[in-house]
Amino acid sequence: MIDYRSRADADARPVDFVAFHDQLLAPRLAAGHGPLAARGLARLALPPLAIEVDGRAFTYAPRNGTIEIVPGRAADAVLATMDAAVFSDLVLDLKTTTAVLLTGAAQVAAAQTPSFLRWDLVLRSMIDGRAIHEPGAVELRDRSGRPLDLDRVFTPRDAPEDVAHFLGEAGFVILKGVFTPDEMAEVSADLDRIAPSYQPGDGQSWWARTASAGSRLVRLKQVQDRSPVVARLLRDPRYLAIADLWPARYPPAERSASPIDACIKPVDTVEGLSDMNWHKDCSLGRHSYDCCNFGVGFSVTDSDADHGQLCVVAGSHRTQLPLVRRGAYAVELPDDLDLPAVPLPTQTGDVTIHLSCAMHRALPPRRAERRVMYSGYIVETDHRLTFTGDDYAALRRSTKAHPPTT
To answer: Which of 4, 123, 363, 370 pairs as cysteine with 307 (C-beta 3.0–4.6 A)?
Structure first.
């Protein structure tokens, strides 16, 4: 399955804080969302959550196998204070707990921040009936019902229905030999040509500090506007054909290619977001409006354990997958996770596709620099994405250094 959208912007009406609890949330909890959310809450071992708006609070607490709405703030609850508009955005899935903390729109005590972040999954269970992952909940099967071979790779000559099924099951796919090494060499040379046109603080680039060379340019945004070589790729039939992996009911007029960013992954990064840790592309919000979009990676160089590579948790787009924070900045997968984290090694000219709500990360290079470009496809209806790469600026400012890579 690829399409997980359940909302449209035209239906997103502001939510009244008090009326929401009486008229919407209480009936949903009684109809089955309550036990589902309580099971997830117990699995995450979280305390109750109290949300306060304009001096009035409600606490969500586990009681008798469900979630109970308690007026006021319980003494043992995590307390999040926000205004009515921010609460409405949370309810409507326009923003996540990560987004409202990142932007300073919600106030939570530092010691309670990890719990508030993980409560996002429980809120979605309460409101939308989305289960928090439990072992055995997701099976990965091929079109014949056999266990999916997660090492399988495809070529542009393979049947689109086979590629689409694998993508829908696993949340990722590798397409071999879409472009030639010579074409990628031309791209790499043009990236070097345009690199001096980016400067720190220009809003169009990300920078990191390396042990060997100090400040390095690691992300070049909107590359198609500066490189005619890259611009041609977005018009290339081999790239445009990727849109046909979407469900058939979306006509080509409702599919649009997003801009293309180039990433340079140095070996010895010691500070900055050269390689992002585990995340979903919808981690700031709008999952129910936009997922699943396609992230398309162009392998400008090889990717593997030495060069660094993309890694995706197979099937993670089909469930709410919690992350574990160890210390202030380390984010890891749960110890009991039964879904495999699959590295995606590629050769120059290969293409990767990952779904926007698949859990993924960039594994840092060990011996050789990696170059990759990311674009994608967005299914258009009556809305466009609210969050862009620029919204990660605050995240970059608040994120400590990577440990050095070797």
So the answer is: 370
Q: What is the CATH number of the domain that holds 20?
A: 3.30.1050.10
State whether 122 and 175 are in the same domain. Answer: no
The CATH number linked to 216 is 2.60.120.620
Q: How many domains does the chain have?
A: 2
Q: What is the pLDDT of residue 306?
A: 94
Residue 301 lies in a domain: yes
> Which range marks the domain in which residue 118 is found?
9-128
User: Could you tell me which of 94, 20, 15, 18 has the C-alpha nearest to residue 385?
Assistant: 94
Pairing between β-strand 78-82 and β-strand 49-53 as defined by DSSP bridges: parallel
* CA atoms of 177 and 123, how far apart (whole Å): 43
Q: How far is CA 367 from the centre of its chain?
A: 27
Residue found under tokens 């620099």: 369
pLDDT surpassing 70 at residue 399: no
- The b/e string for 95-104 (b: 16+ C-beta within 10 A; e otherwise) is bbbbbbbbee
In a domain, 13, yes or no: yes
Do both 122 and 170 map to the same domain? no
pTM for the full predicted model: 0.88
Q: Do 60 and 48 contact (CB within 8 A), yes or no?
A: yes
Buried b (16+ CB within 10 A) or exposed e, 11-47: ebeebebeebbeeebeebbeeebbebbbbbbebbebe
62-120 confidence digits (pLDDT tens): 999 999 999 999 999 999 999 999 999 999 999 999 999 999 999 999 999 999 999 99
Whether 406 shows a pLDDT value over 90: the answer reads no
- For residues 246 and 216, which has the higher predicted lDDT (pLDDT)? 216
Same domain, 310 and 194: yes
The mean per-residue pLDDT over the stretch 304-328 comes to 90
Q: Is the distance from CB of 291 to CB of 282 less than 8 angstroms? A: yes
